[in-house]
């Protein structure tokens, strides 16, 4: 295939290979392919042989670098003639002492790019959702042995050894016969030979191909069959959705729209790149959507199209409600599966699962001062005693404890305690949870008091306390999935801190409050500060720079959201890749009315904007604010630009949104705007400086 893409014919490629032709080994596929390689004919490989090599390339990845390949090699992964037998590993079964079942091929460990290439180039290509089954059957016809191979029929209840007599690719099933004497493993039940024969008779000896695991064999004859069944099994378990085939907009590339984002999400979850709360919400949403689709399908199948009975009318109304609910679930799933929107819109909950329970006041009424230091000089101790400890220990009900690391100190805190961290670099391996109203302060300059987290985790510092204060500390983040600081609920007052991010910056959840004064935040691969609906955020005198976006405000995520309340004064927001401040909101109501025809705008779209997202377009390019200037912005009276949208009913808005997404689910767009400063979410916005932000000072992202 790749030879043809470069304009080379198979014969030309063969001549180019020269003496390397002797190293080619063709897998024995004579049971379903008539492949012949005539080494003496200069024209070399027939078209069928070329296709077989292409299939081998998709199903096998060369684990060891082929040093003999030239730079202009076609990329086809030929097997070396010295390497005979299977290229796959053996999966040893742990069925217990009495288990007599043979081992199977190990295929579940495939890498992302291996599955990606198999689905894109060989199994699905550019098919539409309605063509998935036909493309899959065509793929299996080329690689699966038609008969005479052993497999384990694996279900939730039993594993039993069977022999495949025939395959029905149209229905994705195999005709099998029981291998005698009976060899099986059961889970919670007893199976006899007669019971298994009765079960096979009831199914007409046909079982789903997805439930078959090919028995391991060293010859290599069944490698392709084992891998093909693995691709089929993985696809229908993790990629395919019951409602995909019913999408009313069937004219799109199914791989690009659905397969690739779902495959990436699967591996992101597998490699701990998605917060646990987000994973839990996605799985719950997927289950709810499946249940809703099943209810809708049952109700729809029971309706009579030409009936005017009252019962059918009631069912029709109920069906419309289920359809509306189903479209809402599908829209939310699409948001989760899109890597851009996944973190732009985020998730709301599971805070109860992630938050440590508040300890409250001590029963004795004693307040504790926790001093964190590995070691200190006598001068430091004397200074600490005179400057902080004596003023704090003026009453008799105060005690002092010493700790070697901040995590142990915080874990011992009760409401009203104070944690004083002496200068030093403290490496922590777990998240810091702040469930109580405490004070966490560094004794010195922020660059002298450093808390660094290197291990993976959902967040670095997570606060749910009613009134938490932090000051004079530098936090360095590594591998925290969700953010360097997450204010889930309660209030956090942060002053004179340095936040060196690696993934996400500060997150202010719904109903939480953050006051951040004189802090320096940089390095976030997402937004420096993410502000959720219903939160209160005060940013005064901070530096926010070298992030993906400076401040991201999530507005109107659904009709029940309350607008955030934001104060921005005297901040310096500069050198961010995207916008200095960006507002995220759904593309409904009044926004839909003002969207211009984007067909002409794409022609003049800068390359940088095209790579920001495949579907990003500057809707009002003339209003882009120069990002190299300083801006002193005064508040003005805010007007609600969504009056037209508010007139519409909630159900109408949902219907309009779901219909708009179902027609073109990829219509996400951003625009640079200056009148964002007049938005009513800003309580005060003045004295801020914006410099060298890549896409402008203010922008709006419509999804």
From TrEMBL:
Any one cellular-component term (Gene Ontology): spindle
Transmembrane portions of the chain: none
UniProt entry keywords in alphabetical sequence: Cytoplasm, Cytoskeleton
Superkingdom assignment: Eukaryota
Xref: SMART domains: PbH1
A Pfam family it matches: Beta_helix
SUPFAM superfamilies the record matches: Pectin lyase-like
Coiled coil region boundaries: none
Acidic residues: compositionally biased ranges: 63-74
Region (Disordered): 62-86, 621-653
Domain Right handed beta helix: 465-584
Compartment list: Cytoplasm, Cytoskeleton, Spindle
Biological process annotations from GO: fibroblast growth factor receptor signaling pathway
Residue span(s) of domain SHC SH2: 114-342
InterPro entries: Beta_helix, PbH1, Pectin_lyas_fold, Pectin_lyase_fold/virulence, SHCBP-like_N, SHCBP1-like
Protein known as: SHC SH2 domain-binding protein 1 isoform X2
């Amino acid at each position: 295939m790749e030879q043809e893409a470069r304009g080379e014919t198979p014969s030309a490629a063969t001549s180019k290979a020269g003496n390397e032709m002797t190293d080619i080994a063709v897998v024995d596929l004579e049971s379903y392919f008539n492949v012949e390689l005539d080494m003496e004919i200069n024209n070399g490989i027939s078209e069928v042989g070329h296709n077989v090599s292409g299939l081998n390339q998709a199903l096998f990845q060369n684990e060891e670098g082929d040093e003999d390949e030239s730079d202009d090699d076609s990329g086809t992964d030929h097997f070396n003639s010295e390497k005979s037998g299977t290229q796959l590993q053996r999966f040893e079964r742990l069925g217990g002492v009495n288990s007599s079942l043979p081992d199977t091929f190990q295929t579940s460990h495939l890498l992302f790019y291996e599955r990606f290439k198999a689905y894109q180039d060989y199994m699905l290509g550019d098919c539409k959702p309605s063509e998935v089954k036909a493309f899959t059957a065509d793929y299996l016809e080329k690689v699966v042995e038609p008969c005479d191979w052993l497999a384990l029929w694996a279900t939730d209840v039993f594993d039993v050894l069977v022999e495949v007599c025939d395959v029905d690719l149209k229905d994705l099933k195999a005709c099998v016969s029981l291998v005698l004497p009976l060899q099986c493993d059961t889970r919670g039940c007893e199976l006899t030979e007669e019971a298994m024969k009765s079960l096979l008779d009831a199914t007409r000896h046909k079982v789903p191909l997805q439930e078959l695991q090919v028995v391991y064999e060293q010859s290599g004859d069944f490698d392709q069959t084992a891998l093909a069944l693995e691709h089929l099994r993985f696809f229908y378990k993790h990629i395919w959705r019951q409602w995909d085939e019913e999408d009313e907009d069937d004219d799109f590339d199914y791989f690009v729209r659905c397969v690739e984002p779902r495959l990436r999400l699967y591996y992101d979850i597998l490699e701990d790149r998605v917060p646990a709360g987000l994973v839990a919400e996605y799985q719950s949403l997927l289950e709810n959507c499946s249940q809703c689709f099943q209810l809708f399908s049952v109700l729809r199948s029971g309706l009579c199209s030409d009936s005017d009975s009252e019962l059918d009318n009631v069912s029709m109304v109920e069906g419309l409600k289920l359809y509306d609910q189903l479209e809402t679930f599908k829209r939310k799933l699409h948001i989760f599966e899109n890597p851009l929107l996944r973190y732009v819109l985020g998730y709301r909950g599971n805070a109860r699962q992630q938050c440590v329970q508040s300890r409250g006041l001590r029963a004795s009424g004693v307040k504790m001062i926790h001093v964190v230091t590995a070691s200190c000089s006598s001068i430091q101790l004397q200074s600490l005693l005179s400057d902080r400890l004596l003023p704090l220990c003026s009453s008799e009900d105060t005690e002092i404890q010493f700790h070697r690391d901040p995590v142990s100190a915080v874990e011992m805190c009760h409401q009203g305690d104070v944690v004083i961290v002496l200068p030093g670099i403290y490496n922590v391996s777990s998240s810091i949870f702040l469930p109580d109203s405490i004070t966490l302060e560094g004794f010195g300059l922020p660059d002298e008091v450093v808390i660094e987290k290197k291990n993976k985790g959902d967040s670095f510092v997570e606060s749910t306390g009613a009134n938490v204060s932090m000051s004079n500390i530098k936090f360095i983040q590594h591998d925290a999935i969700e953010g360097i600081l997450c204010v889930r609920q309660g209030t956090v007052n942060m002053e004179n801190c340095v936040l060196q991010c690696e993934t996400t910056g500060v997150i202010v959840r719904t109903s939480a409050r953050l006051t951040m004064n004189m802090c320096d935040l940089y390095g976030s691969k997402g937004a420096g500060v993410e502000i959720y609906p219903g939160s209160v955020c005060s940013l005064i005198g901070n530096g926010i720079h070298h992030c993906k976006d400076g401040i991201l405000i999530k507005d109107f995520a659904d009709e029940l959201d309350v607008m955030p309340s934001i104060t921005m004064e005297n901040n310096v927001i500069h050198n961010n890749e995207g916008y200095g401040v960006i507002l995220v909101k759904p593309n409904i109501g009044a926004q839909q009315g003002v969207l211009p025809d984007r067909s002409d705008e794409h022609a003049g779209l800068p390359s940088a904007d095209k790579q920001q997202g495949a579907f990003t377009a500057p809707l009002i390019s003339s209003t882009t604010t120069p990002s190299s200037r300083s801006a002193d912005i005064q508040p003005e009276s805010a007007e609600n630009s969504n009056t037209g949208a508010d007139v519409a009913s909630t159900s109408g808005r949902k219907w309009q949104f779901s219909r708009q997404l179902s027609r073109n689910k990829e219509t996400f767009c951003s625009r640079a705007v200056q009148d964002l400063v007049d938005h009513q979410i800003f309580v005060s916005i003045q004295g801020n400086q914006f410099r060298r932000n890549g896409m402008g000072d203010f922008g709006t992202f419509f999804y």
